[in-house]
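Render this sequence as a predicted structure.
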Amino acid sequence: MVMPERLRAHGLLEEEVVDADQILLRVLRATAPHVEEAFFRKLTLALTTFCGVKAAAVSELLLDLDKARCLSLNVDGQEVEFGEYDLAGTPCAESMVHGSVAYGSRASQRFPQDAWLNEIRTEACVSVLLRSESDDVLGTLTILDDIPRKDVGELETLLQELAPRVAIELERQQQWAAMRREEARMRLLVQNSRDVLAYVRLKPDLAYEYVSPSVKDLTGYPAEAFHANPALATQITNPEDWERALEKMLSGSADPQVVRITRADGRTAWIETQNYYLHDEDQEVVASVSETRDITARIEDQEALRLSEQYRRALLDTMPDTLLRLSADGVILDFVPGEDVRDVLPSGTALIGQNIRGLLPTAFATSTRRLTQAALRTGKLQRVEFEVAAGHDSRFYEARCMQFGDAEVLLILRDFTAIKWHEGETERRRFRDELDQKVEQRIKTNPYGLTYRELTILHLVAEGSADKQIAETLGISIYTVNKHVGNILSKMNAASRTEAGVRGIREGLLG
Protein backbone atom coordinates (compact mmCIF):
# COMPACT_ATOMS: atom_id res chain seq x y z
CA MET A 1 0.00 0.00 0.00
CA VAL A 2 1.32 3.46 -0.86
CA MET A 3 0.52 5.96 1.89
CA PRO A 4 0.39 9.50 0.45
CA GLU A 5 1.77 10.88 3.71
CA ARG A 6 2.79 14.16 2.07
CA LEU A 7 -0.87 14.86 1.30
CA ARG A 8 -1.87 14.00 4.82
CA ALA A 9 0.93 16.14 6.26
CA HIS A 10 -0.44 19.10 4.34
CA GLY A 11 -3.98 18.40 5.41
CA LEU A 12 -5.07 17.32 1.98
CA LEU A 13 -5.88 13.74 2.94
CA GLU A 14 -7.30 12.31 6.13
CA GLU A 15 -7.59 8.56 6.36
CA GLU A 16 -7.64 7.56 2.69
CA VAL A 17 -5.17 4.84 1.74
CA VAL A 18 -4.46 4.47 -2.00
CA ASP A 19 -3.55 1.05 -3.34
CA ALA A 20 -0.20 0.86 -5.23
CA ASP A 21 -1.90 -0.77 -8.21
CA GLN A 22 -4.36 2.13 -8.35
CA ILE A 23 -1.49 4.63 -8.45
CA LEU A 24 0.26 2.63 -11.20
CA LEU A 25 -2.94 2.58 -13.22
CA ARG A 26 -3.46 6.34 -12.75
CA VAL A 27 0.06 7.12 -13.87
CA LEU A 28 -0.23 4.88 -16.94
CA ARG A 29 -3.56 6.46 -17.89
CA ALA A 30 -2.16 9.97 -17.51
CA THR A 31 0.83 9.26 -19.74
CA ALA A 32 -0.71 6.87 -22.29
CA PRO A 33 -1.69 9.48 -24.96
CA HIS A 34 1.75 11.14 -24.98
CA VAL A 35 5.19 10.54 -26.47
CA GLU A 36 8.66 12.03 -26.22
CA GLU A 37 8.99 15.23 -24.17
CA ALA A 38 5.26 15.41 -23.42
CA PHE A 39 5.37 11.87 -22.04
CA PHE A 40 8.13 12.68 -19.56
CA ARG A 41 6.40 15.89 -18.42
CA LYS A 42 3.12 14.04 -17.84
CA LEU A 43 4.98 11.23 -16.06
CA THR A 44 6.78 13.42 -13.51
CA LEU A 45 3.59 15.43 -12.91
CA ALA A 46 1.58 12.23 -12.37
CA LEU A 47 4.16 10.85 -9.93
CA THR A 48 4.23 14.01 -7.79
CA THR A 49 0.43 14.16 -7.84
CA PHE A 50 -0.56 10.55 -7.23
CA CYS A 51 2.36 9.60 -4.95
CA GLY A 52 2.20 12.86 -3.00
CA VAL A 53 5.96 13.52 -3.26
CA LYS A 54 7.94 16.73 -3.47
CA ALA A 55 9.60 16.01 -6.83
CA ALA A 56 9.94 13.46 -9.64
CA ALA A 57 12.56 13.33 -12.38
CA VAL A 58 13.63 11.37 -15.46
CA SER A 59 17.32 11.57 -16.35
CA GLU A 60 19.18 10.40 -19.45
CA LEU A 61 22.73 9.04 -19.25
CA LEU A 62 25.06 10.94 -21.61
CA LEU A 63 27.90 9.55 -23.73
CA ASP A 64 30.20 10.99 -21.09
CA LEU A 65 29.36 8.37 -18.44
CA ASP A 66 30.07 10.85 -15.64
CA LYS A 67 27.21 13.11 -16.69
CA ALA A 68 23.44 12.94 -17.11
CA ARG A 69 20.75 15.17 -18.54
CA CYS A 70 17.47 15.80 -16.74
CA LEU A 71 14.74 15.31 -19.34
CA SER A 72 11.92 16.31 -17.01
CA LEU A 73 11.83 17.56 -13.40
CA ASN A 74 8.57 18.35 -11.62
CA VAL A 75 8.67 20.06 -8.22
CA ASP A 76 5.41 20.64 -6.33
CA GLY A 77 3.41 20.22 -9.52
CA GLN A 78 5.55 22.64 -11.56
CA GLU A 79 7.94 21.80 -14.41
CA VAL A 80 11.47 22.97 -13.56
CA GLU A 81 14.44 23.36 -15.98
CA PHE A 82 17.49 21.49 -14.74
CA GLY A 83 19.70 20.42 -17.70
CA GLU A 84 22.95 18.47 -17.37
CA TYR A 85 24.59 17.54 -14.09
CA ASP A 86 27.50 15.51 -12.73
CA LEU A 87 26.54 12.04 -11.54
CA ALA A 88 29.20 11.76 -8.85
CA GLY A 89 27.72 11.71 -5.34
CA THR A 90 24.08 11.52 -6.47
CA PRO A 91 21.40 8.88 -5.90
CA CYS A 92 21.39 8.29 -9.66
CA ALA A 93 25.06 7.26 -9.56
CA GLU A 94 24.34 4.81 -6.74
CA SER A 95 21.35 3.35 -8.57
CA MET A 96 23.60 2.63 -11.56
CA VAL A 97 25.76 0.51 -9.26
CA HIS A 98 22.98 -1.30 -7.38
CA GLY A 99 20.09 -1.08 -9.85
CA SER A 100 18.02 1.05 -7.44
CA VAL A 101 18.20 3.02 -4.18
CA ALA A 102 15.45 3.64 -1.60
CA TYR A 103 15.87 5.80 1.52
CA GLY A 104 12.91 6.77 3.71
CA SER A 105 14.73 9.54 5.61
CA ARG A 106 17.88 11.69 5.81
CA ALA A 107 18.64 11.17 2.09
CA SER A 108 20.34 14.56 1.79
CA GLN A 109 22.77 13.56 4.56
CA ARG A 110 23.62 10.36 2.70
CA PHE A 111 24.57 12.40 -0.40
CA PRO A 112 26.30 15.50 0.92
CA GLN A 113 27.85 16.23 -2.51
CA ASP A 114 24.41 16.63 -4.09
CA ALA A 115 23.73 20.31 -3.47
CA TRP A 116 20.23 20.20 -4.95
CA LEU A 117 19.10 17.42 -2.60
CA ASN A 118 20.20 19.57 0.32
CA GLU A 119 18.57 22.64 -1.20
CA ILE A 120 15.11 21.03 -1.12
CA ARG A 121 15.94 19.30 2.21
CA THR A 122 15.35 15.84 0.85
CA GLU A 123 14.32 13.17 3.34
CA ALA A 124 13.00 10.33 1.17
CA CYS A 125 14.59 9.29 -2.11
CA VAL A 126 13.83 6.42 -4.47
CA SER A 127 15.71 5.98 -7.79
CA VAL A 128 15.59 3.05 -10.22
CA LEU A 129 17.65 2.29 -13.31
CA LEU A 130 16.17 2.46 -16.81
CA ARG A 131 17.48 -0.18 -19.21
CA SER A 132 16.86 -0.89 -22.88
CA GLU A 133 15.65 -4.25 -24.21
CA SER A 134 19.30 -5.08 -24.90
CA ASP A 135 20.06 -4.29 -21.23
CA ASP A 136 21.97 -1.07 -21.97
CA VAL A 137 21.74 1.59 -19.25
CA LEU A 138 19.66 4.53 -20.50
CA GLY A 139 19.05 6.64 -17.39
CA THR A 140 17.13 6.82 -14.12
CA LEU A 141 13.61 7.42 -12.79
CA THR A 142 13.62 9.20 -9.41
CA ILE A 143 11.17 10.55 -6.82
CA LEU A 144 12.09 12.78 -3.85
CA ASP A 145 10.22 14.02 -0.80
CA ASP A 146 11.04 16.55 1.90
CA ILE A 147 9.27 14.52 4.61
CA PRO A 148 10.23 11.02 5.79
CA ARG A 149 8.38 8.16 4.11
CA LYS A 150 7.63 4.75 5.55
CA ASP A 151 6.45 3.35 2.21
CA VAL A 152 9.72 3.65 0.23
CA GLY A 153 9.68 -0.08 -0.47
CA GLU A 154 6.29 0.20 -2.15
CA LEU A 155 7.41 3.36 -3.98
CA GLU A 156 10.47 1.48 -5.22
CA THR A 157 8.22 -1.36 -6.46
CA LEU A 158 6.00 1.19 -8.20
CA LEU A 159 8.95 2.78 -10.03
CA GLN A 160 10.35 -0.61 -11.03
CA GLU A 161 6.98 -1.51 -12.54
CA LEU A 162 6.94 1.78 -14.43
CA ALA A 163 10.59 1.50 -15.51
CA PRO A 164 10.11 -0.75 -18.61
CA ARG A 165 7.47 1.61 -20.04
CA VAL A 166 9.64 4.67 -19.35
CA ALA A 167 12.73 2.96 -20.79
CA ILE A 168 10.87 2.17 -24.02
CA GLU A 169 9.87 5.79 -24.40
CA LEU A 170 13.37 7.02 -23.53
CA GLU A 171 14.99 4.66 -26.05
CA ARG A 172 12.50 5.71 -28.72
CA GLN A 173 13.23 9.38 -28.06
CA GLN A 174 16.95 8.75 -28.35
CA GLN A 175 16.43 6.93 -31.63
CA TRP A 176 14.22 9.69 -32.99
CA ALA A 177 16.71 12.32 -31.86
CA ALA A 178 19.51 10.42 -33.57
CA MET A 179 17.42 10.14 -36.74
CA ARG A 180 16.65 13.86 -36.68
CA ARG A 181 20.34 14.68 -36.21
CA GLU A 182 21.26 12.37 -39.08
CA GLU A 183 18.50 13.84 -41.24
CA ALA A 184 19.71 17.37 -40.47
CA ARG A 185 23.29 16.34 -41.22
CA MET A 186 22.29 14.72 -44.52
CA ARG A 187 20.20 17.76 -45.44
CA LEU A 188 23.18 20.00 -44.73
CA LEU A 189 25.43 17.78 -46.86
CA VAL A 190 22.92 17.73 -49.70
CA GLN A 191 22.31 21.48 -49.57
CA ASN A 192 26.05 22.20 -49.66
CA SER A 193 27.15 19.44 -52.03
CA ARG A 194 28.63 20.55 -55.35
CA ASP A 195 27.01 17.49 -56.94
CA VAL A 196 23.38 17.86 -57.93
CA LEU A 197 21.04 15.39 -56.21
CA ALA A 198 17.55 14.97 -57.61
CA TYR A 199 14.46 12.84 -57.01
CA VAL A 200 12.31 12.64 -60.15
CA ARG A 201 8.85 11.10 -60.32
CA LEU A 202 8.34 9.40 -63.70
CA LYS A 203 4.75 8.16 -63.28
CA PRO A 204 1.98 9.08 -63.65
CA ASP A 205 3.53 12.39 -64.73
CA LEU A 206 7.11 13.63 -64.92
CA ALA A 207 7.87 15.87 -61.95
CA TYR A 208 10.86 16.92 -59.86
CA GLU A 209 10.07 16.08 -56.25
CA TYR A 210 13.47 17.43 -55.18
CA VAL A 211 16.55 18.96 -56.78
CA SER A 212 19.45 20.34 -54.75
CA PRO A 213 20.37 24.05 -54.93
CA SER A 214 23.75 23.28 -56.55
CA VAL A 215 21.86 22.75 -59.83
CA LYS A 216 22.12 26.50 -60.41
CA ASP A 217 25.93 26.40 -60.29
CA LEU A 218 25.93 23.49 -62.73
CA THR A 219 23.29 24.61 -65.25
CA GLY A 220 22.72 28.29 -64.55
CA TYR A 221 19.04 27.55 -63.84
CA PRO A 222 17.61 27.62 -60.28
CA ALA A 223 15.94 24.57 -58.78
CA GLU A 224 12.54 26.27 -59.18
CA ALA A 225 12.95 26.20 -62.97
CA PHE A 226 13.11 22.39 -62.95
CA HIS A 227 10.04 22.16 -60.70
CA ALA A 228 8.13 24.47 -63.06
CA ASN A 229 9.35 22.73 -66.23
CA PRO A 230 10.27 19.05 -65.61
CA ALA A 231 11.36 18.73 -69.29
CA LEU A 232 14.06 21.40 -68.86
CA ALA A 233 16.81 18.82 -68.25
CA THR A 234 16.04 17.20 -71.61
CA GLN A 235 15.78 20.55 -73.41
CA ILE A 236 19.23 21.73 -72.36
CA THR A 237 20.92 18.39 -73.20
CA ASN A 238 22.67 17.96 -76.54
CA PRO A 239 20.15 16.01 -78.72
CA GLU A 240 22.71 13.41 -79.87
CA ASP A 241 23.89 12.81 -76.33
CA TRP A 242 20.30 12.58 -75.08
CA GLU A 243 19.38 9.91 -77.62
CA ARG A 244 22.41 7.85 -76.63
CA ALA A 245 21.70 8.30 -72.90
CA LEU A 246 18.01 7.45 -73.33
CA GLU A 247 18.90 4.27 -75.20
CA LYS A 248 21.14 3.17 -72.33
CA MET A 249 18.49 4.01 -69.73
CA LEU A 250 15.81 2.03 -71.59
CA SER A 251 18.19 -0.92 -71.76
CA GLY A 252 18.45 -0.87 -67.96
CA SER A 253 22.12 0.12 -67.98
CA ALA A 254 23.35 1.36 -64.61
CA ASP A 255 26.46 2.95 -66.11
CA PRO A 256 26.97 6.69 -65.57
CA GLN A 257 25.73 8.81 -68.46
CA VAL A 258 28.04 11.50 -69.86
CA VAL A 259 26.32 14.23 -71.88
CA ARG A 260 26.78 17.83 -72.94
CA ILE A 261 24.39 20.51 -71.75
CA THR A 262 23.89 24.12 -72.74
CA ARG A 263 23.96 26.33 -69.67
CA ALA A 264 21.68 29.33 -69.20
CA ASP A 265 24.57 31.60 -70.24
CA GLY A 266 25.02 29.70 -73.51
CA ARG A 267 28.22 27.91 -72.51
CA THR A 268 28.59 24.16 -73.04
CA ALA A 269 29.32 21.95 -70.03
CA TRP A 270 29.96 18.24 -69.71
CA ILE A 271 28.09 16.41 -66.97
CA GLU A 272 28.09 12.87 -65.62
CA THR A 273 24.86 11.45 -64.17
CA GLN A 274 24.36 8.27 -62.17
CA ASN A 275 20.71 7.15 -61.97
CA TYR A 276 19.15 4.81 -59.40
CA TYR A 277 15.69 3.60 -60.36
CA LEU A 278 12.72 2.88 -58.10
CA HIS A 279 10.18 0.24 -59.14
CA ASP A 280 6.57 -0.45 -58.21
CA GLU A 281 5.16 -3.86 -57.30
CA ASP A 282 4.90 -4.70 -61.01
CA GLN A 283 8.63 -3.91 -61.41
CA GLU A 284 7.89 -0.87 -63.55
CA VAL A 285 10.15 2.16 -63.11
CA VAL A 286 8.20 4.90 -61.36
CA ALA A 287 10.92 7.24 -60.13
CA SER A 288 14.64 7.84 -60.19
CA VAL A 289 17.22 9.26 -57.85
CA SER A 290 20.15 10.85 -59.63
CA GLU A 291 23.55 12.27 -58.78
CA THR A 292 25.06 14.66 -61.31
CA ARG A 293 28.46 16.34 -61.35
CA ASP A 294 30.29 18.76 -63.63
CA ILE A 295 33.14 16.98 -65.47
CA THR A 296 33.91 19.74 -67.96
CA ALA A 297 37.42 20.24 -66.61
CA ARG A 298 38.10 16.50 -66.79
CA ILE A 299 36.91 16.26 -70.41
CA GLU A 300 38.93 19.33 -71.41
CA ASP A 301 42.03 17.88 -69.73
CA GLN A 302 41.56 14.59 -71.56
CA GLU A 303 41.15 16.38 -74.87
CA ALA A 304 44.19 18.55 -74.18
CA LEU A 305 46.18 15.41 -73.34
CA ARG A 306 45.01 13.72 -76.54
CA LEU A 307 46.00 16.74 -78.63
CA SER A 308 49.26 16.98 -76.74
CA GLU A 309 50.05 13.36 -77.51
CA GLN A 310 49.24 13.96 -81.16
CA TYR A 311 51.44 17.05 -81.14
CA ARG A 312 54.31 15.20 -79.51
CA ARG A 313 53.97 12.36 -81.98
CA ALA A 314 53.95 14.81 -84.88
CA LEU A 315 57.06 16.53 -83.56
CA LEU A 316 58.76 13.21 -83.00
CA ASP A 317 57.99 12.16 -86.55
CA THR A 318 59.53 15.35 -87.93
CA MET A 319 62.66 15.51 -85.78
CA PRO A 320 65.87 14.89 -87.72
CA ASP A 321 67.74 12.88 -85.08
CA THR A 322 67.65 9.10 -84.96
CA LEU A 323 67.17 7.85 -81.42
CA LEU A 324 68.13 4.37 -80.26
CA ARG A 325 67.70 2.80 -76.83
CA LEU A 326 70.47 0.31 -76.25
CA SER A 327 71.24 -2.27 -73.58
CA ALA A 328 74.66 -2.20 -71.91
CA ASP A 329 76.00 -4.77 -74.44
CA GLY A 330 74.71 -2.81 -77.47
CA VAL A 331 71.41 -4.60 -78.26
CA ILE A 332 68.79 -2.25 -79.79
CA LEU A 333 65.73 -2.20 -77.49
CA ASP A 334 63.79 0.56 -79.25
CA PHE A 335 64.35 3.25 -81.82
CA VAL A 336 62.77 6.34 -83.42
CA PRO A 337 63.94 6.94 -87.00
CA GLY A 338 65.02 10.44 -87.90
CA GLU A 339 66.42 11.88 -91.10
CA ASP A 340 68.13 9.54 -93.53
CA VAL A 341 71.16 7.85 -91.94
CA ARG A 342 71.26 4.88 -94.33
CA ASP A 343 75.00 5.33 -94.83
CA VAL A 344 75.40 4.46 -91.16
CA LEU A 345 72.39 2.37 -90.13
CA PRO A 346 69.88 0.19 -92.02
CA SER A 347 66.21 1.12 -91.65
CA GLY A 348 63.24 -0.96 -90.61
CA THR A 349 61.71 -2.50 -87.49
CA ALA A 350 64.04 -5.50 -87.86
CA LEU A 351 66.64 -3.39 -86.08
CA ILE A 352 65.11 -4.19 -82.71
CA GLY A 353 66.90 -7.07 -81.06
CA GLN A 354 70.08 -6.72 -83.13
CA ASN A 355 73.42 -5.57 -81.76
CA ILE A 356 74.23 -2.12 -83.09
CA ARG A 357 77.94 -2.90 -83.34
CA GLY A 358 77.18 -5.47 -86.04
CA LEU A 359 75.24 -2.89 -88.07
CA LEU A 360 77.60 0.07 -87.99
CA PRO A 361 80.79 0.69 -89.99
CA THR A 362 83.76 -0.92 -88.25
CA ALA A 363 85.40 2.32 -87.17
CA PHE A 364 82.19 3.68 -85.72
CA ALA A 365 81.25 0.36 -84.05
CA THR A 366 84.41 0.59 -81.94
CA SER A 367 83.65 4.20 -81.04
CA THR A 368 80.08 3.29 -80.09
CA ARG A 369 81.27 0.59 -77.71
CA ARG A 370 83.59 3.05 -75.96
CA LEU A 371 80.82 5.66 -75.94
CA THR A 372 78.32 3.27 -74.32
CA GLN A 373 80.74 2.10 -71.64
CA ALA A 374 81.80 5.65 -70.79
CA ALA A 375 78.18 6.82 -70.49
CA LEU A 376 77.29 3.96 -68.13
CA ARG A 377 80.51 4.35 -66.12
CA THR A 378 80.44 8.12 -65.66
CA GLY A 379 76.75 8.90 -66.03
CA LYS A 380 77.77 11.84 -68.22
CA LEU A 381 76.92 12.71 -71.80
CA GLN A 382 79.43 11.30 -74.29
CA ARG A 383 79.95 12.63 -77.82
CA VAL A 384 81.90 11.59 -80.89
CA GLU A 385 82.07 12.70 -84.53
CA PHE A 386 82.93 10.40 -87.41
CA GLU A 387 83.17 10.46 -91.16
CA VAL A 388 81.67 7.86 -93.47
CA ALA A 389 82.50 7.51 -97.15
CA ALA A 390 79.44 7.92 -99.36
CA GLY A 391 80.35 7.31 -102.97
CA HIS A 392 82.86 9.95 -104.05
CA ASP A 393 82.01 12.15 -101.09
CA SER A 394 82.11 11.86 -97.34
CA ARG A 395 79.32 12.48 -94.87
CA PHE A 396 79.82 13.65 -91.35
CA TYR A 397 77.86 12.24 -88.42
CA GLU A 398 77.63 13.01 -84.75
CA ALA A 399 76.79 10.48 -82.05
CA ARG A 400 75.80 11.44 -78.51
CA CYS A 401 75.31 8.85 -75.81
CA MET A 402 73.81 9.26 -72.35
CA GLN A 403 72.73 6.94 -69.56
CA PHE A 404 69.05 6.03 -69.80
CA GLY A 405 68.62 3.68 -66.84
CA ASP A 406 70.67 1.32 -64.71
CA ALA A 407 71.90 -0.68 -67.71
CA GLU A 408 70.64 1.23 -70.75
CA VAL A 409 71.80 4.17 -72.85
CA LEU A 410 70.19 6.55 -75.32
CA LEU A 411 72.18 6.97 -78.53
CA ILE A 412 71.43 10.00 -80.71
CA LEU A 413 72.64 9.92 -84.32
CA ARG A 414 72.69 12.99 -86.53
CA ASP A 415 73.90 13.75 -90.03
CA PHE A 416 75.53 17.17 -89.82
CA THR A 417 77.29 17.18 -93.16
CA ALA A 418 75.61 20.40 -94.29
CA ILE A 419 76.36 22.06 -90.99
CA LYS A 420 79.95 20.88 -91.16
CA TRP A 421 80.39 22.56 -94.48
CA HIS A 422 78.45 25.64 -93.42
CA GLU A 423 80.42 28.80 -92.89
CA GLY A 424 81.09 29.50 -89.21
CA GLU A 425 80.76 25.90 -88.09
CA THR A 426 84.00 26.11 -86.08
CA GLU A 427 82.69 28.98 -83.99
CA ARG A 428 79.33 27.32 -83.40
CA ARG A 429 80.98 24.09 -82.33
CA ARG A 430 83.07 26.01 -79.81
CA PHE A 431 79.91 27.59 -78.51
CA ARG A 432 78.12 24.21 -78.33
CA ASP A 433 81.04 22.72 -76.45
CA GLU A 434 80.77 25.52 -73.88
CA LEU A 435 77.07 24.80 -73.59
CA ASP A 436 77.83 21.09 -73.21
CA GLN A 437 80.08 21.82 -70.26
CA LYS A 438 77.40 23.89 -68.59
CA VAL A 439 74.66 21.41 -69.32
CA GLU A 440 76.64 18.38 -68.16
CA GLN A 441 76.84 19.95 -64.70
CA ARG A 442 73.06 20.10 -64.53
CA ILE A 443 71.93 17.06 -66.51
CA LYS A 444 71.34 14.90 -63.41
CA THR A 445 70.58 17.52 -60.78
CA ASN A 446 67.87 19.59 -62.43
CA PRO A 447 64.53 19.03 -60.61
CA TYR A 448 62.44 19.01 -63.77
CA GLY A 449 64.09 16.04 -65.45
CA LEU A 450 65.20 18.13 -68.42
CA THR A 451 67.27 16.21 -70.95
CA TYR A 452 70.67 17.24 -72.24
CA ARG A 453 69.17 18.83 -75.36
CA GLU A 454 66.40 20.57 -73.41
CA LEU A 455 68.90 22.13 -70.99
CA THR A 456 71.02 23.26 -73.95
CA ILE A 457 68.05 24.94 -75.59
CA LEU A 458 66.97 26.47 -72.26
CA HIS A 459 70.37 28.25 -72.15
CA LEU A 460 69.71 29.77 -75.56
CA VAL A 461 66.09 30.63 -74.70
CA ALA A 462 67.31 32.48 -71.62
CA GLU A 463 69.68 34.48 -73.85
CA GLY A 464 66.73 35.57 -75.99
CA SER A 465 67.43 33.45 -79.06
CA ALA A 466 64.52 32.71 -81.39
CA ASP A 467 63.81 29.17 -82.56
CA LYS A 468 65.42 29.81 -85.93
CA GLN A 469 68.59 31.12 -84.27
CA ILE A 470 68.68 28.12 -81.92
CA ALA A 471 68.32 25.74 -84.86
CA GLU A 472 71.20 27.40 -86.71
CA THR A 473 73.43 27.50 -83.62
CA LEU A 474 72.91 23.84 -82.71
CA GLY A 475 72.68 22.54 -86.26
CA ILE A 476 69.24 21.04 -85.82
CA SER A 477 65.93 21.65 -87.56
CA ILE A 478 63.49 24.25 -86.34
CA TYR A 479 60.95 21.41 -85.82
CA THR A 480 63.31 19.81 -83.35
CA VAL A 481 63.74 23.14 -81.55
CA ASN A 482 59.94 23.51 -81.38
CA LYS A 483 59.67 20.05 -79.86
CA HIS A 484 62.28 20.71 -77.20
CA VAL A 485 60.84 24.13 -76.29
CA GLY A 486 57.42 22.52 -75.88
CA ASN A 487 58.93 19.83 -73.62
CA ILE A 488 60.72 22.48 -71.53
CA LEU A 489 57.52 24.49 -70.97
CA SER A 490 55.60 21.32 -70.08
CA LYS A 491 58.18 19.95 -67.65
CA MET A 492 58.75 23.32 -65.95
CA ASN A 493 54.99 24.09 -66.02
CA ALA A 494 55.94 27.46 -67.49
CA ALA A 495 53.44 29.64 -69.33
CA SER A 496 55.97 31.15 -71.73
CA ARG A 497 59.54 30.95 -73.01
CA THR A 498 60.36 34.08 -71.03
CA GLU A 499 59.12 32.54 -67.78
CA ALA A 500 61.11 29.36 -68.44
CA GLY A 501 64.31 31.34 -69.13
CA VAL A 502 63.92 33.60 -66.08
CA ARG A 503 63.19 30.66 -63.80
CA GLY A 504 66.14 28.72 -65.25
CA ILE A 505 68.48 31.57 -64.28
CA ARG A 506 66.93 32.11 -60.86
CA GLU A 507 66.91 28.44 -59.97
CA GLY A 508 70.50 27.88 -61.04
CA LEU A 509 69.68 25.52 -63.90
CA LEU A 510 71.88 27.34 -66.36
CA GLY A 511 75.16 27.22 -64.38
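Summary. The chain has a mean pLDDT of 81. The chain has three domains: 5-184, 196-294, 306-506.
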